[in-house]
Amino acid sequence: MAGDQVAGLEGELKGLPSRIGVPILTAWNAKEDLLDLLALARTDPNCEDVADLLYRFYRRCAESGPPELERLATTVQTWWPEILAFIRTGITNAGSEGTNRVIKTVGRDAYGFRNPVNQRLRTRCVTTRRARGHLDPR
Predict the structure, then answer these.
(1) What is the number of structural domains in the chain?
(2) In terms of domains, do 114 and 55 share one?
(3) Do 47 and 102 sit in the same domain of this protein?
(4) 99/79 Cα distance (integer angstroms)
(5) Domain shared by 11 and 74, yes or no
(6) Which domain holds residue 58?
(7) pTM (predicted TM-score)
(8) pLDDT by residue (tens digit) across 77-130?
(9) What is the full DSSP assignment across 75-98?
(10) List of residues 6+ apart from 129 with CB closer than 8 A
């Protein structure tokens, strides 16, 4: 969002009753802090920048109050070694997660096949279309 759009959003949220607007604005800011931290991926950041952004995110979550943000901070802390590996290398497991999702979807569609070999064949055909040239965008 552009700066003026963010300012408008903040103004709208501050105009709401505080029990509604303040938690939403706090969650928005914590989300932005986390996105700033994740945006360091593939930029070869130094340790101080990562530590500063992580501290800013944790501080905002701790000072905010909503239990959802405390839970988010706990989740980030639990997965921090993996998140840091992503920030340093830029490597994710998105490809394998996408393939697993397709396999599960095909498995649900194929529920009731009498022959497990046919189910495996259908899964293999769906997950190897790109390699066989069927999803070539050209």
Answers:
(1) 2
(2) no
(3) no
(4) 22
(5) yes
(6) 3-89
(7) 0.68
(8) 999 999 999 999 888 888 888 888 888 887 777 666 677 787 778 777 777 766
(9) HHHHTHHHHHHHHHH----HHHHH
(10) 135
